[in-house]
Amino acid sequence: MPELRLNPITREWAVIATERSRRPHDFKKADETPAPKPDHAPTCPFCTGNEAMTPPEVEAFREPGAQPESPGWWVRAVPNKFPALAPEGVFQPQPVGVYLRAEGVGTHEVIIETPLHNHTPATMPAEQWREAVRMYQRRLQALCRDSRYKSLLLFRNEGRTAGASLEHPHAQLVALPFVPPVIQSLVDGIARYRAEHHKDPFEAILEQEHREGVRLVHTAPHYTAFVPYFARVPFEVWIVPHAPQAHFEQVGDSERDAFADTLQHVLQRIDAVLSQPPYNFMLFTAPVNTAAEVEFRWFLRIAPRLTIDAGFEIGTGVGINITAPEDSARYLRGEG
Amino acid sequence: MPELRLNPITREWAVIATERSRRPHDFKKADETPAPKPDHAPTCPFCTGNEAMTPPEVEAFREPGAQPESPGWWVRAVPNKFPALAPEGVFQPQPVGVYLRAEGVGTHEVIIETPLHNHTPATMPAEQWREAVRMYQRRLQALCRDSRYKSLLLFRNEGRTAGASLEHPHAQLVALPFVPPVIQSLVDGIARYRAEHHKDPFEAILEQEHREGVRLVHTAPHYTAFVPYFARVPFEVWIVPHAPQAHFEQVGDSERDAFADTLQHVLQRIDAVLSQPPYNFMLFTAPVNTAAEVEFRWFLRIAPRLTIDAGFEIGTGVGINITAPEDSARYLRGEG
Questions:
Q1: CA nearest B327: which of B318, B315, B336?
Q2: d(Cα A295, Cα A199) in Å, to the nearest integer?
Q3: Which pLDDT score is estimated for A32?
């Protein structure tokens, strides 16, 4: 019998329909098996020596004496060459009859996480990955200083099926002049839950997940990684900090390193269990430059792309998850 | 410069970012080129003669004297063999600690649109397609008589990339015991627009689209097909009835036939311009069995699957459309 489960923050139902349930290796598709890659690709715009193929960098971690736009860096942030949004002008919606339009004001950056073409977040040395995550934070910090921006999203597309057009390891960052629907629904949901229960919903979720234990993937001193009870897709994982901190931008260095370690561990488990599947991850952080501080807790959501959203999901907004969250978590813990 | 455009009903922004704009033939992928198919496939559960491979039919249009579960039908409705929801029990959400869960109560049917394996909505005879759409309506009418259901969605997945697992022409229908987020946001948006503007937003949209003309795809006596100003994906088309009717279930026979003809024409144009692309379409109709009648207008949304939703779209809820709606419409009108 299929089951419906509610996300207590957004109040969205997900269907857990395990009639067609599959074990991890059943999800594997031949065309998703990554072919061996070289550590340097001559035509890759993100590889060392090809710095001129990207727009001029906005920030880089590089060796002392190394010049901008040239080798010697270990993490590099550049504007997206084909930006969804452009950092000029002001967000001023104007009516066009019944519609509204505005200039597409925003910033769209790429964070090149390593000079090595064939590494991944799961395979790069821990120290390198910590540096990549340090750059995530530095760019978020830089962009929220622009008062035109109200919301930031750091995300990563891994694999062609997940929307990645270049295979060299990279994340993306967008700054938006408005709070988009997904983040607004988190803000609204947190406020509603607190008003009804006099408690932060993340605190309530963490308490229950630790009490039940069946959906835990990994517990670290400052973070818990778990498959949410209301997961919309197979092997979805949330990494939630124990401290109720609204802004990832404000996380201290050692906690940020601990977060990078937890995230790397979870991505290694996902790669091991699902044979390097395509995935997206999204780092949600509180709206910025708001009149009043909003209640929020930053967190990261990993959504493997193992199934296809079709007419049902697009037309209803309800996810169909064919692997029980408890099963996903058990596999990810390595208990087969 | 990218542009932001607002859906006046749901108040969602879409990014129109044509820097990477592509003409129709640039979207074509080799693996999406449909191979020639036979008109009958021995192992296809939806082909004539294989009726025993599906669960027992719930309704069929068949020749006089032909027996159920055997050849002689021209449209056939059956329960989904792997249903996302099951038609037993009652929807009674129960707390599980901080979460809510409910039995996955619902109905999930498949409408086999023709006995011929290798037809499509674009290629089947107009009369056959009208019969398929007549069955859509009959099944919607039947399911809304079950007072447990609050919302119905008829949808169609065409092509593997769009989530179709069987190639034989078929649509799907789900009945849900609650109003899902996408339909609730239409209901809320229509009410808000009416309260603010004292006008049905669909009427305002139709007036503007006819006045401007640049996004029109096809105009029929009872329907207008257009690419919405705020289209989230390339070549998105809405078919909106001119009459402000809430329920597709209540459309009269001749208007329903005219709708089938309009839909078929648009799908033929999409197939011609984009070489039979994968797509989803969703037929939105008003919530049913509600305490009070809600303001709504049924309509159909076609969303070709030419690009991939990735971290940005999943994490923000904002679409990035790389083809200007005016360009999509021009191509679909055949003006190249």
A1: B336
A2: 11
A3: 55
Q: What is the ipTM of this complex?
A: 0.96
Q: Which amino acid is at B225?
A: A
Query: What is d(CA B220, CA B205) in angstroms, rounded to the nearest whole number?
Result: 16
Q: Which residue of A has its CA nearest to B97?
A: A208
Q: Which of B32, B34, B30, B43 is nearest to B119 (CA)?
A: B34
Active site residue A247: no
The three-class DSSP label of residue B266 is helix
Please give the Cα distance from A151 to A10 (Å, whole number): 18
Strands (E), B262-316: 279-284, 299-304
Question: ∠ at Cα B30 (B29, B32), nearest 5°?
Answer: 70
Cβ B136 vs Cβ B172: under 8 Å: no
CATH number of B3-85+100-333: 3.30.428.10
What confidence score (pLDDT) does residue B170 get? Answer: 98
Q: Which residue of A has its CA nearest to B231?
A: A99
Rounded-to-integer distance, Cα A128 and Cα A130, Å: 5
Hunting for tokens 């869960």 — which residue is that?
B101
Q: Quote the CA–CA distance of A80 and A54 in Å, as a whole number.
A: 8
Q: How far is residue B302's CA from residue B156's CA, in Å, rounded to a whole number?
A: 9
Q: Is A198 exposed, middle or buried (0-12, 13-18, 19+ CB in 10 A)?
A: exposed
How many residues make up chain B in this entry? 336
Which residues of chain A make contact with B93, given a CB cutoff of 8 A? 4, 6
Residues within 8 A of A (CB atoms), B 61-90 only: 82-86, 88-89
pLDDT value for B69: 96
Q: Are B311 and A181 in contact (CB < 8 Å)?
A: no
Average pLDDT over residues A50-64: 97
Residue closest to A45 by CA, chosen among A15, A66, A69, A21: A69
Inter-residue contact B287 to B183 (CB < 8 Å): yes
Partners of A13 in the beta sheet? A6
Task: Note the pLDDT of residue A33.
Answer: 60
Which residue ranges in chain B fall short of pLDDT 50? Answer: none
Structure token digits, residue B208: 């503007």
User: Looking at the complex, does the CB of residue A286 fall below 8 Å from at least one CB of chain B?
Assistant: no
Residue B132's nearest CA partner among B73, B206, B180, B176 is: B73
- CATH numeric code, A15-86+102-333: 3.30.428.10
